[in-house]
Amino acid sequence: MSILWQPRLFIRGALSLAAVSGTAFLLTRRKLNQKCRRIPLSTVPKSSACRNFVEIGERTNHPAWGLSSSTLLPSWPGDNTTPTHWIPSFTAVQVELPISLLTKDTPQSGTDLLPLVKTLFAAFLSSPVMAFERWLMNRGVPPLSFTPGQHLFGTAPNPGAFLLGTWSSASGQPLNPLLLPDTAPNPVAAFPSNKDVLQGRNGEGEAAGLVLYWRGTGQPIQKVNRVIAAVGLPWQVMQGGFQEFIIERMEDSKEMVRVTYVSVEAQRMDPGGGGRRNFGRLPWVLMEMHVMYAQSLLWGAVGRLGR
Question: Which of 122, 160, 240, 299 could form a disulfide with 188 if both were Cys (CB 3.0 to 4.6 A apart)?
Answer without folding.
Answer: 240
